[in-house]
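Need tokens for this chain, all 144 residues.
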Amino acid sequence: MDKLKSYNFLSKKTSKSRINVRYSETDTMSFVHHSNYLNYYEIGRLAWFKNIGFSYKKLESENIILPVVETKIKFRKPAFFDDKLVLETTIIKPPSYSIEFNYIIKKNDELINEGYTKLIFLNSTDKKPIRCPKNILKKINDFL
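Here are the structure tokens for all 144 residues:
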């Protein structure tokens, strides 16, 4: 997956989250259903923003929304009910009109899933793209 690469200049821009797989997230084969990985990625993004001292809620109060416009998922091994997963969320380049993240999910230190999302900054009133707000850029730079 070409988007799933590491960029050294942002290597410190990683946030870790712990996920306990719930029974409702599994399918009839006992695997975590593939759609849940996008939910896991959202958990990672929310934690990432919180880790730099910002929140989606604050963004929305400033009339900014971040819809996902692109995603990639690579499944390596399955996860099952009650597995303890570690999700690493990393910003991959400085944001402009969009912000991009890589995700790595591990179970017992073994890589089981990789992902990527691209989100765009939109004005929530007119739904037009806007640049990443300066206060978020400052938080990202302070996070180094």
